[in-house]
Amino acid sequence: MIDRLWQTIFWLSGLLLLLLLVSILSYLIYRGHAAISLEFLLSSPKGLPLGAEGGILPAIKGTLCLVVLAVAVASVPGLATAVYLVEYGEKNSLSQIINTTVQCMAGLPSIVTGLFCYALFVVRLGFGISLLAGGLALGMMVFPVIVVTARDALLAVNNHYRLVGIALGVSRRYLLVRVLLPQALPGILGGMLLAMGYAAGATAPIMVTAAAIATPTAGNLFEPVMALPYHLYILFSQQVSLDKAYGTALVLVSLLLVLNVIALWLRQRKGRGV
Questions:
Q1: How far is CA 238 from the centre of its chain?
Q2: Which residues contact 135 (CB under 8 A, 6 or more apart)?
Q3: What does the pLDDT look like over 23-63, one tens digit per residue?
């Protein structure tokens, strides 16, 4: 009886989360679908105040540039850290310190990461408000996500591969490169896509390091960029256009959903051993 009661509570909790997600998506579609058009997706913001007319193409380009740069910056050190924790660090004191540090970084408020990156990249290193500073800030923010997901993917690899490799006298480097990393690859890629989704939705770090209300360029490393979350914040907070704010939110959420669906597909593919 008690077990059935707990099962019912867990089932209702999952159903509540699903209903919340469906409600948010339904509301965004209801309020934002009218703003979605080819002109909205393929043109720059116009009008007075800026954004009252036109579209969000520079913000889409800027978001993609920031996300790609962030994952490119964080993926190599994140993967190397995960490999050390699983394959080399075992349970020594250094690996425990690294694990604690990664957990602390994951718990940092994003605005604190943004302020630190502003002081370091924008002021100290002289990058200015730019795509490079924003990409590095987002890279620092998603670094723990990549470490944790890559670590879990490596831990999920069947330990028999390691035992057989040791029994055959295969070097640890060969075993890692030719067997373990290919086996863990879908999970690692899924984690990187989750990190991209996390970075795409972040507003606080780019507000102080990269974002501009309007800029014609989106790929210059040393110039500011527009980004979807910051553009949404401006449209909403300045009451520029609520319809376009909801349209921008719908595009941003759609982008995040696509990334998450692909990540889940990769993780399921790994689970099936494909």
A1: 27
A2: 65, 66, 69, 70, 72, 73, 210
A3: 988 998 999 888 888 888 888 888 788 777 888 989 999 99
Q: For 56-84, what is each residue's pLDDT tens digit?
A: 989 999 999 999 999 999 999 999 999 99
Closest CA to 235 of 66, 54, 79, 86: 54
Task: In whole angstroms, give the CA distance from residue 55 to residue 35.
Answer: 9
Do 238 and 213 form a contact (C-beta atoms < 8 A)?
A: no
Residues forming a β-bridge with 53: 46
Give the global pTM: 0.86
Contacts of 126 (CB under 8 A, 6+ apart): none
Tokens, residue 194: 């989750």
Segment holding 53, helix H or strand E: strand 53-54
- Per the CB < 8 A criterion, the answer to whether 60 and 218 are in contact is no
Q: What is the DSSP letter of 50?
A: T
CA distance 246 to 243: 5
Q: What angle do CA 225, 226, 229 make, to 5 degrees?
A: 130
* CA torsion, ordered 92, 267, 269, 78, to nearest 10 deg: -50
The amino acid at 236: F
**Rounded distance, CA 198 to CA 15, Å?**
24
Could you read off the pLDDT of 130-160 as tens digits, one per residue?
A: 999 999 999 999 999 999 999 999 998 888 8
Q: Are 210 and 220 in contact (CB under 8 A)?
A: no
